[in-house]
Design goal:
The complex is a heterodimer of chains A (about 325) and B (about 425). Chain A is mainly alpha-helical. In chain A, about 70% of the residues lie in helices and about 0% in strands. The longest helix of chain B is centred in the N-terminal third of the chain and has 27 residues. The C terminus of chain B is likely disordered. The chains are: A mainly alpha (about 325), B mainly alpha (about 425).
Chain lengths: ~325, ~425
C-alpha cells in the first residue's frame, strides 16, 4: 500500500515538466531573498533596503570613462585608465554630449543590448521560432535583477561588451562568409572588457580541425594583444598598476565575484574564523583559492574534452556556458 | 523605390508576432516608470522605492485588524464592525490560535500559493493548454514583483485569496459540471470574503442562450449570498455598511483608490486644470462625470454581454470575464491598489483568447490594440509615485483595456462568419471560444 503510494508520487513527480522544477527553484529564492527581507523584518515594517552600493553622481564609471576619453580627445594626453586603451575611442562620441544626455543614451544602449543578448540572439543561435517560457522567465527576472540595476547605476559596459561578443559568436556560426565581421566584433568586445577573450573557444566550428582552430586562436590573440598597445606601453603598465591597487582593495567585498574575494570572505565569516582549521587556511588562503581554481579548470577541461571527443560541430552550449562562468571569476570581477 | 521600401517595412512589421508588440509596450512602461524613476532622478543618485508613505507599521495591518476582530467575536460573542462581510470573521478564526507574526507569515505564504494557483495553473487548465507559454510567464513574473502584490502582502489583504476561490469556482463550473455544487460553494466563499467577486456570476454561464436557467442560477446564488450577509443578524451588517460609507467618504481623490468616484474627485482637484466655469461647475456636480464613467462601463459591459448572447456563446467567455474584472476594480467605492494583485490572473486567463491574429482580420488594428493593451496593463504594475501626476490613477488604463476588449469582441463577432483558424502569429495560448 505504502509502496504503491510512493510509486505513484514518484511517477507523478518524474512526469512533471522540467519547467516546474525551474520555477520551484526561482520561487524558493524569491521567498528567501525577496519576501523574507522585505516583509518579515523584525521591525514589523516593510523594508526598502538600499540594496546597491550606490555612488553620487549616478553612472560614476560611465562619467569617468567619458572624462578620460574627453581628456585624450581634447589634449591628446592619454590618462591613466583601468580599461583597455580602446575604451578611450569607444567613449569619444559621448564627449560631444552633455553628461546627463550621454548617461540617458548609455542606459538605452545597455537596455537594447540586454534585449538583444537575452531574447533575440539566443533565439537565433538556438534556431528557435518563438520565445519560450524559459527565455521569458530569464529575460524578465534578469531585467529587474540586482546585477542589471548595478550595471545601470554604475554606468558599466559589461552588457555592451558581452553583446558584441555574442553577436560575434552568432555571425561566426550562422554566417560563415562574414566571419571577418565576427572577428571584428569579438575584438571590440575584448578591447572593451578583456575578459570576453575567453570566448575565443566559442569561435570553434569543428573541434576536430585543431590546426584551423589553433590558427584562429593565435591570430585573434596576437591581434588583441597588439591592440592593447595602441597608445604605447606606458599606458598598459599604468593600467596594470591601477588594477593591482583595485585588486588589493576588492578581496572580501560581497559584491566581488572573483575566487580571491570569495576565499577571503568565506574565511573571515564569524563562527568559521575561530576554528583552528580555518585559522590555518586564513594564513594559507592560496590553498583554498588554488582548490577552487583547480575545480573550475577541471570542469572546463572536461567540457572541452567532451566537445573534442564528440567532434562537436557548430555552437556548443556546454562550452559556452562554461566559458561564461570562467569569465565571471577573473581576479577583479 | 520608396514605395517598395515602405511596403517591405510594412510587411515585416505586420508579420512580427503579437508578442513583439506586447513586449514593446512592457518595455516602454518599464523605461518610464522604473528606469527613469530609479536612475534618472535630478538628484543624480539612485532613488530607492519611494512608496514608504503607503506603508503601515506594524506590517500586515489589515490582517492584524481582522484577526483581532475575529478574536473579539470568538471570545466575547460580540460582532465588531469591520469593512468586510461578517463571514470574514469566521474565515480568520484559525489565525486567532496563532501569534501575530506566525499568522502573518502563514497568510503571506497562502497569498503567494494562491497567486501561483490563480495566475499560472488555473488559466492553463481553463484554457486547456499543455505547457506554460511565454506570455503566461511574462504575466506571472511581472505580477509577482508588481506593486499591487507587494501592497497586498504589506497590508495583509486577502484579495488574491478571494479571487482564487472565485477562479477555482469558474474552473469547476465549466470543466467539472457534475461538481457544480462545489463551484457555487467556492463562489459564495469568495463573495463573502470580498463582496466584489459577485460580479463574476456572469462567468458562471455555460450556455448564453439558455437564459431561463441562467436567471435561475443568478437568483439562487444572489439569495444565498444576500442571506449569508445577515448571518449575525442585521445589526452587524448595518454597522459594516456604516463603516464602509465612512471610509469611502474619507478615501476619495486618493491615487491608490481605483474606484470611479475617487478618480473623478481626484481629476477635478488637479492643479493643472484651468479655472474655467465648466470645471468649477463640474467640481460642484461631481456626480455627473461619475455617472458618465459608470455609463461608459455599463455600455461596454452590456455590449460584451449582448455579443455573448447574440453568438450563443458556449463555455468560458474571456471577454465577459475581462469586463467583470474591470467592473470589480472600478465599481466599489473603496477599491485600493492592492486589488491589482488579482489583475495578472485575469490577464493570463482571458487575454490569450482575446488578442489573436485572424487570417481575415485587420492586422494593423490588432497590432495597435495589442500595443495599447500592453502599455495600459503594464502601467498598472508600478507604484503611483513612479508615474507623473496625470498618470498616477490606474482607472484610465483599466477603461482603456475594457475599450480594447469591447472593440475586439465586436470586431470578432462581425468576422465570426468567415473566421479562419487562429494563425501561428497569435500569443499562442488561447483556445477558440
Amino acid at each position: 500500500m505504502i509502496d504503491n503510494i510512493y510509486q505513484r508520487i514518484k511517477d507523478y513527480l518524474l512526469k512533471l515538466p522540467l519547467m516546474t522544477w525551474v520555477l520551484l527553484g526561482f520561487f524558493i529564492t524569491f521567498l528567501a531573498f525577496f519576501i523574507v527581507p522585505i516583509f518579515f523584518d523584525s521591525s514589523l515594517r516593510m523594508q526598502f533596503n538600499h540594496y546597491l552600493p550606490a555612488t553620487l553622481p549616478i553612472g560614476n564609471d560611465f562619467r569617468v570613462s567619458v572624462a578620460f576619453s574627453s581628456t585624450w580627445f581634447h589634449s591628446a594626453v592619454v590618462p591613466e585608465i583601468v580599461y583597455p586603451a580602446f575604451t578611450l575611442i569607444f567613449f569619444s562620441p559621448f564627449t560631444l554630449l552633455d553628461g546627463e544626455v550621454g548617461y540617458k543614451i548609455f542606459i538605452l544602449i545597455i537596455l537594447l543590448c540586454y534585449v538583444l543578448m537575452t531574447l533575440t540572439l539566443p533565439q537565433r543561435i538556438n534556431k528557435q521560432k518563438n520565445i519560450s517560457a524559459l527565455s521569458m522567465l530569464i529575460f524578465i527576472t534578469g531585467l529587474v535583477s540586482y546585477g542589471m540595476q548595478f550595471e545601470i547605476e554604475r554606468g558599466q559596459f559589461n552588457v555592451i561588451a558581452f553583446t558584441f561578443c555574442l553577436v560575434a559568436v552568432y555571425i561566426f556560426h550562422n554566417h560563415p562568409k562574414r566571419r571577418w565581421l565576427a572577428y571584428l566584433f569579438f575584438t571590440i568586445s575584448v578591447q572593451l572588457k578583456l575578459y570576453p577573450a575567453i570566448f575565443v573557444f566559442a569561435l570553434i566550428e569543428d573541434w576536430s580541425d585543431w590546426k584551423g582552430n589553433i590558427k584562429r586562436i593565435v591570430g585573434l590573440g596576437i591581434l588583441n594583444f597588439a591592440a592593447l598597445f595602441i597608445f604605447g606601453v606606458d599606458l598598459i603598465q599604468t593600467a596594470i598598476r591601477t588594477i593591482d591597487k583595485i585588486q588589493a582593495n576588492l578581496p572580501g567585498r560581497v559584491y566581488s565575484l572573483s575566487i580571491l574575494s570569495f576565499s577571503m570572505r568565506i574565511l573571515s565569516i564569524g563562527f568559521l574564523s575561530r576554528m583552528p582549521v580555518f585559522m590555518w587556511l586564513q594564513a594559507n588562503s592560496w590553498l583554498l583559492q588554488s582548490f577552487l581554481f583547480a575545480f573550475i579548470v577541471v570542469c572546463f577541461l572536461i567540457i572541452l574534452w567532451q566537445a573534442y571527443k564528440k567532434n562537436s560541430k557548430s555552437f556548443n552550449p556546454s562550452v559556452f556556458f562554461c566559458l561564461y562562468y570562467w569569465s565571471l571569476y577573473y581576479p577583479w570581477s | 523605390m520608396i514605395d517598395n521600401i515602405y511596403q517591405r517595412i510594412k510587411e515585416y512589421l505586420l508579420k512580427l508576432p503579437l508578442m513583439t508588440w506586447v513586449l514593446l509596450g512592457f518595455f516602454i512602461t518599464f523605461f518610464y516608470f522604473f528606469i527613469v524613476t530609479l536612475f534618472l532622478d535630478p538628484s543624480q543618485y539612485m532613488k530607492y522605492f519611494p512608496y514608504n508613505i503607503l506603508v503601515n507599521s506594524p506590517i500586515g495591518s489589515d490582517f492584524r485588524s481582522i484577526v483581532f476582530s475575529s478574536s473579539t467575536w470568538i471570545h466575547s460573542g460580540a460582532v465588531p464592525p469591520t469593512l468586510y462581510p461578517p463571514i470574514t470573521l469566521m474565515f480568520f478564526v484559525p489565525f486567532t490560535f496563532l501569534n501575530d507574526g506566525t499568522g502573518y507569515t502563514v497568510l503571506t505564504l497562502i497569498i503567494l500559493i494562491c497567486y501561483v494557483w490563480s495566475t499560472l495553473i488555473l488559466p492553463r487548465w481553463i484554457n486547456k493548454q499543455k505547457g506554460i507559454s511565454a506570455f503566461a510567464m511574462l504575466i506571472f513574473i511581472t505580477g509577482l514583483v508588481s506593486y499591487g502584490l507587494q501592497l497586498e502582502l504589506e497590508r495583509g489583504q486577502w484579495n488574491v485569496v478571494a479571487f482564487t476561490f472565485c477562479l477555482t469556482a469558474i474552473y469547476i463550473f465549466h470543466d467539472h459540471p457534475h461538481r457544480r455544487w462545489l463551484a457555487y460553494l467556492l463562489f459564495s466563499i469568495s463573495v463573502q470574503l470580498k463582496l466584489y467577486p459577485a460580479i463574476f456570476v456572469f462567468a458562471l454561464i455555460e450556455n448564453w442562450s439558455d437564459w431561463k436557467n441562467n436567471i435561475r442560477r443568478f437568483v439562487g446564488l444572489g439569495i444565498v449570498n444576500v442571506l449569508a450577509l445577515f448571518i449575525f443578524g442585521s445589526g452587524p451588517l448595518v454597522r459594516t455598511v456604516g463603516s464602509v460609507v465612512e471610509t469611502a467618504a474619507t478615501h476619495v481623490g486618493l491615487p491608490f483608490n481605483l474606484s470611479v468616484s475617487s478618480f473623478v474627485m481626484y481629476i477635478l482637484s488637479m492643479g493643472f486644470l484651468p479655472h474655467a466655469p465648466i470645471i468649477v461647475w463640474l467640481q460642484v456636480n461631481g456626480w455627473l462625470p461619475q455617472l458618465f464613467l459608470f455609463a461608459f462601463f455599463a455600455v461596454c459591459f452590456l455590449m460584451i454581454l449582448g455579443q455573448a448572447y447574440k453568438n450563443g456563446s458556449k463555455g468560458f467567455n474571456p471577454w465577459v470575464f475581462m469586463a467583470c474584472s474591470i467592473g470589480a476594480f472600478i465599481i466599489p467605492a473603496i477599491s485600493f491598489d492592492y486589488k491589482l494583485a488579482t489583475f495578472p490572473s485575469s490577464i493570463a486567463l482571458s487575454i490569450p483568447a482575446i488578442l489573436t491574429f485572424k487570417e481575415s482580420g485587420n492586422k494593423f488594428l490588432m497590432i495597435l490594440l495589442t500595443f495599447l493593451f500592453s502599455v495600459a496593463y503594464s502601467s498598472t504594475l508600478y507604484p503611483y509615485m513612479y508615474k507623473p501626476e496625470w498618470l498616477q490613477y490606474n482607472l484610465p488604463a483599466l477603461l482603456l483595456i475594457l475599450t480594447i476588449c469591447t472593440i475586439l469582441c465586436c470586431v470578432r463577432s462581425e468576422k465570426s462568419a468567415d473566421a479562419s483558424p487562429i494563425s501561428k502569429s497569435n500569443l499562442g495560448m488561447g483556445r477558440e471560444t
